[in-house]
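This part of the workshop introduces the protein records we will be handling. Each record describes a single protein and holds just a pair of labelled lines. Instead of coordinates, the fold is spelled out as a row of discrete tokens. To make this concrete, we reproduce a full record directly below:
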Amino acid sequence: MKFRHSLLAKYLLIIMVALILWPIVLPAYLIPSYLLDKDLQQQAQYMDTKKLKKMWHHEAAKLDGATPDQVDQKLHSLKEQYPLARIFWVDGTGKTKLTLSEQKNIPAQWTLANSIAFLNHSDEDPITFVSFIGSNQSNGFMVFQIPPSVAKLPTLSFIDDKILAIYGFLVFGLFLLVSWLFFFKIRKRLVHLQTAMTETKENGIPEKIVINKKDEISELGKAFNHMIDELIKSRQHEQEEEALRKQLIANISHDLRTPLTAIRGHAYSLQKEPLSTEGKDSLYLIENKIDLLSHLLENLLSYTLLSAGKYTLQRKETDMIRFIRESMAGWYPVFEKEGFKVDVHLPEKALIWHIDPHWFMRILDNLYQNVVRHANSGRYIGVRVVNYVGKAAILIEDRGPGLDVITDKKGAGIGLSIVSLMLQEMQLGWNITSSLKGTKIYLYENKEMEKNNLE
């Protein structure tokens, strides 16, 4: 981006224009009043009293040995140059020779008394320079006087000060207005960009913004639009990969069912044949692995259908106390065979939830299966109804090593993923607390989730 298109260049331009307009609107700040007025121009030469004093002493020194006529001629010349000054000179005998002023108290013959009277007579206390003529005091002296008002700097009148103050406020106000408009437009564009970043479409991706300028904010907008393009491409690739993965899982699950059914049939046929003890153990192991593999394939297919929203949900009011008793009755032989202590404490009062019984039975089967596979070292399963965060919750707990422990039986977590998806679809909540002493899983109705879905 070129510098002339940047916001910094534009703001520097505003400051430069303000600096240029300031002396134009207020010339008195840069151009003294005495340059605009002839009388003031004349008065300007009397303001530097040090320069005048030096000039007067220099002119007196140059008159060394001059005749009275030459002195008179020189003083006339100086009077023309400094018309507002009072000039006269006195010879060596104290006699006033030439008076080039309207002052009336200049004595004709100078004595000590009238010299003092002359100095004290003037009320305005003029600025006076006295120099001896030449190098010999006997030649007399010459005097140069100017009124103090002439040597003062000119001041503006009350009206001029008021006008200048008004002009100053106008220029300053104009600068503030332009600066405010400049930053107001910047803020408006930034707010527009912020809104575009926070507001998203149905796919969760914001809309692209229109860019019609060339500056830093526009560059930020281009980067934002580029990010949106990348997000759209990434989302498309993700959707394609997800669709491919679901299709692959569905195909694998479907294709593996046929050989598993055949293997299961042959294993059943082998049970009728006379086998050795080792053969019976191997057959039992085969049947267990076939059941486990069938369960995994069923989970894979269910997860795929749930993710695609193709798993039929039929919710109805169900007594959870009775439902849990029936599920535990079906799993009790499995727990008993594995040597588990089964601890079930359920109230007599009904607990009605709005669920899909088939889905919820699948949830409990997955949770029980996890306990058998991963928490069998604790040999304990407990099921009871407790109060959890102010709600009636079903608690399923074990005394295994916890979910964080890595074992050779640890799977990919598809069973718990299915549990999570099914509970979410039925507007039920759940929470897991796990440690080395065991795992607790709380299942409860999530009224807030159901309310949000209805809204």
In short: The longest helix spans residues 216-270. Residues 35 and 41 are 6 Å apart (CA to CA).
